[in-house]
Specification:
Structural class: alpha/beta
Strand content: 15-25%
CATH superfamily of the largest domain: Type I PLP-dependent aspartate aminotransferase-like (Major domain)
Number of helices: 14
Bound molecules: pyridoxal-5'-phosphate
Shape: globular
Length: 345
């Protein structure tokens, strides 16, 4: 199968499997797993943050950050298609007791401007509005089609937020894709953010795991919350070993995924009834609208499956994500199949 549903479907490389087999391990709840400790130190160094914590999932990393930055009754601001709002099971209200204030990005890019954030803030309105407690950003932005936020855009939001004593959390599940697309370090892209979460298990290819980064005392508290939420794992160096390879090796080859995604986007842009601005495809996510095709997105995905291709239907759109288990040839096969399916009807 050519699996374009997500970059979460990557299988560990032979190098990752070898590293997992010989990983040195210890009990990570006691902070005694040398491989986890090494991974945490490396991640903190790469991002220029004081400390890092290995967490089982990106969702847990994000939700611990939301919990630690806020108090019950606060509001958090997030772009309306943000992952924390749409795909994390309402955890901000369950665990942190906060409300989400989704904000539309007028540009459609998913990247909020300060003016858009500012209009949604509740500051000094103590008797009738929930106070804003946190701003959440996402880079790259998944549901907006892998769009990227520059270091300057992020720094401006952080500066303005900090001037109001508001913390900023960055959901950088795919920040290495943003870094590749912008030719900018992940440290610069997350420079003034109070916390960052990034996933080892998406385009970087590790089987499991994400990292939460921030100041040392924040990460100490995060360690408590990770345990509270059931994320205190034991000899987890076997997973961290794959994470280390993912962190060190995969960023160098993400450009290939981006080239494949662009080729896919340019190909689908030529199909009848398909709408996509291929120029906007900056990373590894391709989302195209099929409202004018004669089949629904689910019907098209079902027919693609008959051709050995998996993709995700999203309302009137289809999402395809490239990763290191998808080759250029796979993209060509996908385009041929799509052409056949769409033109047949
Ligand atoms: C932008 C973004 N943030 C967070 C997550 C959550 O990661 P996980 O699936 O590891 O919980 C995802 C997963 O797809 C994502 O796309």
């Amino acid at each position: 199968m050519i699996d374009l549903r997500s970059d979460t479907v990557t299988k560990p490389t032979a190098e990752m499997r070898r590293a997992m087999a010989k990983a040195e391990v210890g009990d990570d709840v006691y902070a005694e797993d040398p491989t986890v400790n090494l991974l945490q130190q490396k991640a903190a160094d790469i991002f220029g943050k004081e400390a890092a914590l290995f967490v089982p999932t990106g969702s847990m990393g994000n939700q611990i950050a939301v919990k630690l930055h806020t108090k019950p009754g606060d509001e958090i601001i997030i772009e309306e298609r943000g992952h924390i709002f749409n795909y994390e099971m309402g955890t901000p209200s369950v665990v942190a007791g906060v409300l989400i204030r989704p904000v539309k990005s007028a540009s459609g890019s998913g990247i909020l401007t300060w003016a858009e954030i500012e209009s949604a803030l509740h500051i000094n309105q103590p008797y009738y509005a929930c106070p804003t407690g946190l701003i959440c950003l996402e880079n790259s932005h998944n549901l907006a089609g892998g769009t990227v936020m520059t270091a300057e855009q992020c720094a401006e939001i952080c500066d303005r937020a900090h001037a109001l004593d508001l913390p900023v959390h960055l959901d950088g599940a795919r920040i290495f894709n943003a870094s590749t697309a912008l030719n900018e370090s992940v440290a610069e892209l997350s420079k003034n953010c109070d916390s960052v979460q990034f996933c080892l298990s998406k385009g970087l290819g590790a089987p499991v795991g994400s990292m939460l980064l921030g100041k040392r005392d924040f990460i100490e508290e995060a360690r408590v919350w990770r345990k509270r939420l059931g994320g205190g794992m034991r000899q987890v160096g076997v997973l961290a070993a794959a994470g280390l390879i993912a962190l060190e090796e995969t960023p160098k080859i993400l450009n290939v995924d981006h080239e494949n995604a662009r080729m896919l986007a340019e190909g689908v842009a030529n199909l009848k009834g398909v709408l996509i601005d291929a120029e906007r495809v900056a990373t590894n996510i391709v989302i195209f609208n099929i409202s004018d095709a004669n089949l629904s997105s689910s019907e098209i995905c079902a027919k693609l499956k008959e051709h050995g291709i998996l993709a995700s239907p999203f309302g009137n759109s289809i999402r395809m994500v490239t990763h290191y288990d998808v080759s250029r040839k796979d993209v060509e096969t996908t385009l041929r199949a799509l052409k056949k399916i769409i033109q047949q009807f």
